[in-house]
Amino acid sequence: MKKKKLIRLVAGVAIIGTLIAGSSAAFMFFRPHRDVQAAKTDYSLTNSEIVSEYLKDSQAADNKYLAADGDSKILEVTGTVNKISENYNDQKVILLKEKGDHAGVSATFTAETNHKVTDLKIGETVTVKGVIRSGAAFDEDLGFYENVILEKSDLVAQK
Amino acid sequence: MKKISSIVVSLVLLMTFSAYSQNQGKLKSSKSHIKFYSHTAVEDIEANNYTSVSTIDTESGEVVFSIPMQGFEFEKSTMQKHFNQEGFLDTKTYPKGKLVGKITNIDEIDFSKDGVYQADVEGELSIKGKTKPISEKGSITVKNGNIGVESKFNITLADYGISFVKGKPSTNVAKEVEVTVLADYQAE
Question: For chain B, what is the largest distance between any 2 Cα atoms, rounded to a whole number of angstroms?
Fold first, then answer.
């Protein structure tokens, strides 16, 4: 009788354990991507500020803004709309760049936020929130300055 | 009379030169798609990147791609995190991948005439701080002044110091990954 009870207890613990392990594995596996727009903004700055920070010391800037797991810093960047285009994924891309600056900030929107770009005009000053993917730098092989890249962007202010 | 003819000659020269310089020179692309595709018996994994910048020098044939590595997006967030981490691509330390190559048959490609041209590219691909030679074929499509490039080739992950001896990645990630490149170019 006692033995049966023990077996039952062990079996019960095993089942519960399996359930917990299984569901946490499933949670890890199906864990959704970070919602950039719902997440807190890490830094608010102008396009010129982040570009010059990168051109001054790209390694220090990468250390500050990039995360090892790819969930890098979320930025709100203010600047002048210099170019509006679309990528191969049907996402709108706006370039915030000031006259006289070597590089700008390129912000890729999403299927959900694309419509915010429709009314934007070249020369307008806007603030865009997105996650940084890479910084600005002069590339010798390309022969020009690369822009700071933001993705998962949305328009948060428009003047 | 002499003056007029010299003016005419210099005008013709100037026009020829400007027409020439419009067709020649550097093409730039900021509209691109780079896809990694890994196939194993266990699962197929795909990652897409739309953030690369590229140039083609139509005279020398030099091709350059600069690829922000954190711009690769996976369907599953856990995979994306793994991809970025130290054991895999270590994208914080090596934020950009790069391809520098040369179209060896550039003379056979007429960027001013509509058509589909085969391009043979030889060069070097740098990922995670490691540079390896590559040789691949692509196609260049010229249509109404638009220039598109398409290429598909395989890379061996171990060449770039990415190898898995145990755990899920060793069974679920292919040793050879297929890379598809699409890019749209404009005169710089």
Answer: 86
ipTM of model: 0.85
Q: Give the span between the Cα atoms of A88 and A116, in whole angstroms.
A: 19
> How high is the pLDDT of residue B10?
65
Instruction: Determine the average pLDDT of the residues in B156-182.
Output: 91
Mutate to test the interface with B, among A110, A149, A153 (most CBs of B within 10 A): A149
Instruction: Write down the architecture of domain B25-187 according to CATH.
Output: Beta Barrel (2.40)
B50: distance to nearest CA of chain A, Å? Answer: 7
Please, are residues A103 and A148 in contact by the beta-carbon 8 Å criterion?
yes
For residue A86, which of A104, A103, A111 has the smallest C-alpha distance? A111
| Same domain, yes or no: A134 and A111 | yes
* Alpha helices per DSSP H over chain A: 2-30, 47-56, 58-65
pTM: 0.85
